[in-house]
Amino acid sequence: MSNAKSMLEREMKEFIKEFCITIGPRPPCSSEEAAAANLFKEKLKIHCDDVVSETFSTHPGAYKAAFRVPMVLYLVSLVFYWLIPWLSLIVSIVLIIILFGEMTLAKEVIDFMFSKKTSQNIICKIKPKNQAKTLLIIGCHVDSNWEFPLIRKLRNKFPILIGINWFLNTILFILLIVKNFLLFVGLELIIYPFEIILFLIFLITIPIPLTQLFFIISNRPVMGANDNLSGMAVCHELVRNLSLPENNPKNVEIWINAYGCEETGSKGSKAFVKAHFNKIKNAKIINIDMIGNKNSPLLIGKAEIQGFVKMDEEIINLLKEAGDTLNVKTKITTLIAYTDSLSFCRKKLSATSLSSTPQSSKEYYYHTRHDVLENMTFENLVNAYRICMDVIKRLDRQ
Question: Which residue has the higher pLDDT, 194 or 49?
């Protein structure tokens, strides 16, 4: 490793270590999240005068409930299946709306039921030497999640349990539609043998939704060294170096953002897009999230399964070209869960995410107490920094 890369790695390690020691876990809307945002702001102010904090309101309690409430409704629907089928169907409809709306699309379906709390975004603006021709936004998120005990126990098998519960809820919903229709037309006995078999399956598999109900998420916040102090470290280094006269862009205005409440459904970036849409509608956006996984290439998101968003090809290709030029291993791929790019892509803005994924079950530290500095690798942090700097130079030449 060259001296420059080695120094960059040391700087990022010290940055993450400081946040871990002085602040620790940073659950959404907590005093620790606010302290981390303020510390980040103070660090940026050393290198850039135009740094602001913008507050927003959200309902963090809905996040945990969205994992648990559908499982409760599933059990209630089973209870009323034979007694009051139409009520069972209504409960199942509510269940599906929450599962699909809140969990899959990150929409605020049940948020109104929970108290509002305050979080914050940090925005650092780096002005070019000349008049700005392009706006580039590079973002990360400040908060860390609560621990998912099932991820710690099941590791990469965790999605299987979620998938089974989705399947059971969907089958019950379809069966209830058919049952209530046949009851209405007086032909309910047609499916009686079939529904007996299915109902026995529902009863036998009850431990699966019960497991999600009681063990999917805890009240213990995780350190979040990788998710997402890794992104914050890269953003900090970008500001430090772009503030140097020799690195100051000529034609590109750069905003370095740190969002709150990403873990509860990208709420901070959503608030940012809403507040600044007219200013950023022609911007290029890169979000850096969880890039410290070992043995993983840098992933450039082309879409996200949860959220059903497609990312912009222009910024994707720009990152890929930069990686190829620097001989950095990158991979354009579909990401599973929503990053902060979700908020931008929903508004048809040019955005993508840089991330990494665990490559083995033993390295599955995502949202667990093992997401600590000692379990990170820093090669991708250095490479993400290099790629972003190269993208800035490319845009500046344009």
Answer: 194
